[in-house]
Amino acid sequence: VAPTGAPITDTEERGDELTPGTALRLNLMPGDVKIEGHDGPRVHVSTTRFVRVAKVASARLALEGLAMRVDYGADYLGLTTAVQDDMEALGCTEYRTDVTVRLPRGVPVLLRKKDGDTHIANVFTDLTIEQEAGSVHIENAQGNVKIVLNEGDIETQNTAGQLELGASNGDIDVFRPYGNLRVQCEGGNTVIDTPGAGVFARTKGGDVRLIAVEGVKADYDIETENGNISLAVPESADATFWIEVIDDSDLPGHRASR
After folding, report:
1. Residues 214, 197: contact at Cβ < 8 Å?
2. Sign for the pseudo-dihedral over CA of 55, 57, 61, 65
3. Do residues 167 and 149 make contact, with C-beta atoms less than 8 angstroms apart?
4. Bridge partner list, 202
5. How far is Cα 49 from Cα 98, in angstroms, rounded to an integer?
6. Half-sphere exposure at residue 134, Cβ-oriented, CA atoms within 13 angstroms
7. Is 199 exposed, middle or buried (0-12, 13-18, 19+ CB in 10 A)?
8. What are 96's strand-pairing partners?
């Protein structure tokens, strides 16, 4: 059943100057998140609260039911969004808080989030994302990246550091990972395109496709359960493939190499 009532939004903006070595910690309720690195020294945060209410007169109370808190630690700046009131009792049929952050490229980011779409670009240090549902898209990340997503899809493009991805009930698409890649995927397909370093992938219930048209540049260790594996490499590639297939009847495995 589609939510009913009038959609109401309220946006708040703030800016803070960060000292070197300060990290950004986000603990967020459902909503979309966009984080982008820039060259300046300040972090800019915009939060947009969205509610849909049966009666417009209840809108202000419903918006106030979505809390935002900022914490300052010795080595971090923290932002928390949360539901603090009974939204159903306020006549609210739908709600979320969207967050947009522009921050210095060298600020580490720790994001814990319930649900929604996450887009992060041009961050040059470590990223850690723990998300329950939605999607995660990372582009032009220079540091190490770790993503754990319980329900939804992960997509990364042009990452330079170590990349560790874990998804349940979703697909993983990786394009041009220049650092070592480690993938754990259940219930979805995995595509790894043009890896520039080693690949370690373990999947269950989905297919794996690895595309190395620019050549095999490191070891690729791939295992899948209840899925297919396909490799695309140039005919001129100087590589050896070891393949082991074990069927479902506990018969001895079949080995082949070329």
Report:
1. no
2. positive
3. yes
4. 184, 223
5. 6
6. 22
7. buried
8. 50
Q: How confident is the model at residue 242 (pLDDT cuts 50, 70, 90)?
A: confident
- Asked if residue 91 lies in contact with residue 27, where contact means CB atoms within 8 angstroms, the answer is no
d(CA 101, CA 237): 43
Reported as a pLDDT band with limits 50, 70 and 90, residue 245 is: low
CB 73 within 8 Å of CB 106: no
Q: Does the model's pTM come out above 0.70?
A: yes
Torsion 10-16-20-21 (CA) sign: negative
SS3 (DSSP) at 163: strand
Three-state SS at 60: helix
Amino acid at 120: I
Half-sphere exposure of residue 48, counting CA atoms within 13 Å on the CB side?
11
Residue closest to 43 by CA, chosen among 62, 61, 18: 18
**Coil/strand/helix, residue 9:** strand
Q: What token pair was written down for 133?
A: 């549902």
Residue 119: closest CA among 107, 132, 102 = 102
CA gap 216, 235 in Å, rounded? 11
* Residues 153 and 167 sit within 8 Å (Cβ to Cβ): yes
Counted residue by residue, the chain has a size of 258
More confident residue, 116 or 240: 116
What is the distance in angstroms between the CA of the first residue and the CA of the last residue of the chain? 56
Distance CA 36, CA 139 (A): 10
d(CA 120, CA 127): 9
Tokens 């990972």 found at: 177
